[in-house]
Write a structure and sequence with these properties.
single chain; alpha/beta; Rossmann fold; two-stranded antiparallel sheet; 11 helices; 8 strands; about 45% helix
Length: about 260
């Protein structure tokens, strides 16, 4: 009798992973290592199931809304080159090419991931919401930086080009800090990273929180709206509870999504 347990990876999860650009960015041997590592990991399976549900919801929304931005990703490379050629102006044998319309890469996406004791019941959900962001960043060839925080900050998890680097991904899945939460140091670290970003192209900052943090007064006293505008940062919040958000609102967020809706 063998002691080997049956894999928990079903066909739907495997299909999701192999379509995910962050998984595709791995070498084949790394893909197999990841599948072997997590094939019996119940937390990993639950995170994947949440990710699949969210991805389906995103696709349904995208199917009903015409995409108005990021036009580079609506066209194939050949179409982009043809459009560039068509818009080239010739004057006295001098070619004026609109290269300024094509930006070389995008700024990183930063996710501030609260990991205090109060948000522990939502841990799997919170991490599941990030998986579609891996795919987006890998598709756009942009870095994904996850900053876990509670009362102190953890070392940022820097996924180059959004690819699922195995050692970092294992930390992302399995590490959790606990204790209370301080939100201001996490925001300040994100600002520091963006301040060093030379691209300044599509700076996205996302916070995942239950709005139960100990430094609300310091948060309210700082003019983050002005600082976000000056650094051209798009700031969104994924909040676990609308009631808690109303008690300690993050008023300068441009978008807020509630997990309990």
């Amino acid at each position: 009798m063998t002691n080997e347990r049956k894999t928990l990876l079903n066909e739907e999860i495997l299909r999701f992973l192999y379509k995910n650009a962050s998984f595709q960015g791995l070498e084949e041997i790394e893909q197999q290592q990841l599948l072997t590592r997590y094939k019996q990991d119940e937390k990993f399976i639950k995170i994947m199931e949440i990710s699949i549900s969210l991805q389906e919801m995103i696709q349904e929304v995208e199917a009903t809304m015409p995409k108005m931005q990021d036009k580079d990703y609506l066209l194939s490379l050949a179409q982009q080159q043809r459009l560039l050629k068509e818009r080239t102006v010739v004057e006295d044998n001098v070619y004026f090419v609109p290269f300024n319309e094509i930006k070389a890469g995008q700024s990183p996406m930063i996710v501030l991931l609260q990991q205090s004791a109060t948000i522990k019941p939502y841990e799997v959900f919170c991490k599941g919401t990030i998986m579609p962001l891996f795919h987006l960043c890998a598709t756009q060839k942009r870095d994904l930086i996850i900053i876990p925080f509670s009362e102190t900050l953890e070392i940022p998890l820097h996924f180059k080009n959004g690819v699922l680097q195995l050692a970092l991904f294992d930390r992302f899945l399995n590490e959790f800090k606990g204790n209370s939460a301080m939100i201001v140091p996490a925001i300040e670290q994100a600002f520091a990273i963006f301040a060093e970003d030379a691209l300044c192209n599509g700076r996205d900052l996302i916070m995942i929180t239950d709005n139960q943090f100990d430094d609300f007064q310091a948060l309210a006293e700082e003019d983050y709206a002005t600082r976000l505008e000056s650094l051209d940062i798009e700031f969104s919040v994924i909040a676990m509870s609308e009631d808690n958000f109303e008690l300690q609102p993050i008023s300068f967020a441009q978008q807020v999504f509630f997990a309990n809706e």
